[in-house]
Amino acid sequence: MDYSINFTYFTLGGHVDLQHYKYVYFMITLKAYIMIVCFNTVIISVICRNKCLHEPMYIFIAALLCNSLFGSTAFYPKLLIDLLSETQIVSHEACVFQAFCMYTYAVSEFLLLSAMAFDRYMSICKPLHYATIVKMHIVRKLIFFSCFFSCCTVGVGALLASQHQLCKFKLNRLYCDLYSIVKLGCTRPTVYNLYGLVIASIAVFPPVIFIIYSYIRILSVCLKNSKDFRRKALQTCLPHILVFIIFSVNICFEIINHRLESNQIPHIITMIMSVNYALIPPLFNPIIYGIKMQGIFDSIRRLISWKRRTQISF
């Protein structure tokens, strides 16, 4: 490729052995994306259609799954196109936009999980104040704040990355991210790195610390109460804890993968680690909530039974 002419395009160098296995990779990726869309859409539609599920806890779950669909849509369509393309390229503007969407998804996920932890904390630790504090307009404001704050903070980072002068045009990635873009610059991205630390200290660490603190308090309250109380509390908290652990572990893999850049790690392992947070949480979150949340599970079971009766009647 003549970079003197196509200097506004990046080559995505994370793809390997596409000539021999591209259709296999394409089918696997397509199936994963279809499963993510179907699973998340089913849970969201069940929550929206059943008035008995129009409670703060379930509304937060629906918002979290909508965020998963947003992050997956930012990642999978471009990947599917690249798997069938002879060359994997992306324009500078499209690359920054995809990176903006992926980072917004990640920050929103932490903020929504912290809002869900707050909801469970108030419900279990302060039940007398729950109805007066956690109202639907508060839930809507928390969801809006999670999306708006993440868009604004990541948007500034994307703007800084887009203004960085570039000297290299190959990303050793399957998708675009802001950190990889600024590393292609001619100079050290001091301003971007400083801003990244500020955002991490505001948008990531406080939610994570609050989530851990909330569930420790919930656990301490459960230990002081009856077995029936512990069973009911853990039944609603366990899915959130599992989702938080799965997402946090996959984000840690991505951060470690970014920082180490070790040549001793096989390339295929590095690529798998880089996409885990866009694959595993969106795929497993709806499964966890569909199985572990009794209200959602019962609604899905009634829906399946109704469809079976309808088919038999016809």
Short synopsis of the structure:
Helices cover 79% and strands 3% of the residues. It has 314 residues and is mainly α.
What does this 3D model show about the protein?
By secondary structure, the protein is mainly alpha-helical. Strands 2-1-3 form a three-stranded mixed sheet.
Order of helices and strands: EHHEHHHEHHHHH
Class inferred from helices and paired strands: mainly alpha
Multimerization status: single chain
Helix content: over 70%
Biggest sheet: strand arrangement: 2-1-3
* Distance linking N and C termini: 60 Å
* Number of alpha- plus pi-helical segments: 10
The counted number of beta strands is 3
What are the segments in which pLDDT stays under 50 over at least 5 consecutive residues?
1-6
Q: Mean pLDDT, as a whole number?
A: 85
Report the C-alpha radius of gyration, rounded.
Answer: 22 Å
**How does the overall form come out from the CA principal axes?**
globular
β-strand percent reads under 5%
Q: Mind describing the biggest β-sheet?
A: 3 strands, mixed
List keywords for this structure.
314 residues, mainly alpha, three-stranded mixed sheet, 10 helices, 79% helix
Task: Break the fold down into its secondary structure elements and pairings.
Elements: E1 9-12, H1 18-49, H2 56-83, E2 89-91, H3 92-125, H4 127-133, H5 136-162, E3 170-171, H6 178-183, H7 190-223, H8 227-260, H9 267-292, H10 294-313
Parallel strand pairs: 1-3
Antiparallel strand pairs: 1-2
